[in-house]
Amino acid sequence: MKLFALGVMTTIIMGCSSVPAQSPVELIGHTQSGKASFYAMKFQLRKTASGERFNQMAKTAAHRSLPFGTRVKVTNLSNDKSVIVKINDRGPFIKGRIIDLSRSAFSVVANPDVGIIPVSIEVVK
């Protein structure tokens, strides 16, 4: 009976685990176009969805579905400037926006006074 209970528990635990649909390696070269914005200062030091503390000075970003730790090249389509960021949060959840950048990352590709920019993103790592 103990062996049966152990088997049932193992099955339940295995059923609750999940496997990502795609690993970051399989996503290399994946591109997407849309709008980018940046985080408000009120999010400084708050926990991100990955568990890291948000840092406006780091080159990080939020994306709705890319795995945490994925490196993405973000290119401003208005001036062709680009920056590489690490995905460590989820969002943005506003129609048309595909990525939320830290202020530091946004500043590399555009003046923050602009607020929202057209971008393309490409998974690089």
TrEMBL record:
Gene3D superfamilies: RlpA-like domain. It comes from the Bacteria. InterPro entries: RlpA, RlpA-like_DPBB, RlpA-like_sf, RplA. GO terms for cellular component: plasma membrane. It is found in: Cell membrane. It holds the Pfam family DPBB_1. It is an enzyme of class 4 (lyase). GO terms for biological process: cell wall organization; peptidoglycan metabolic process. Residues 31-120 form the RlpA-like protein double-psi beta-barrel domain. Keywords: Cell membrane, Cell wall biogenesis/degradation, Lipoprotein, Lyase, Membrane, Palmitate, Signal. Its EC number is 4.2.2.-. It is a lipid-anchor. Residues 1-21 form the signal peptide. GO terms for molecular function: lytic endotransglycosylase activity. Belongs to the RlpA family. Lytic transglycosylase with a strong preference for naked glycan strands that lack stem peptides. This is Endolytic peptidoglycan transglycosylase RlpA. It comes from Gilvimarinus xylanilyticus.
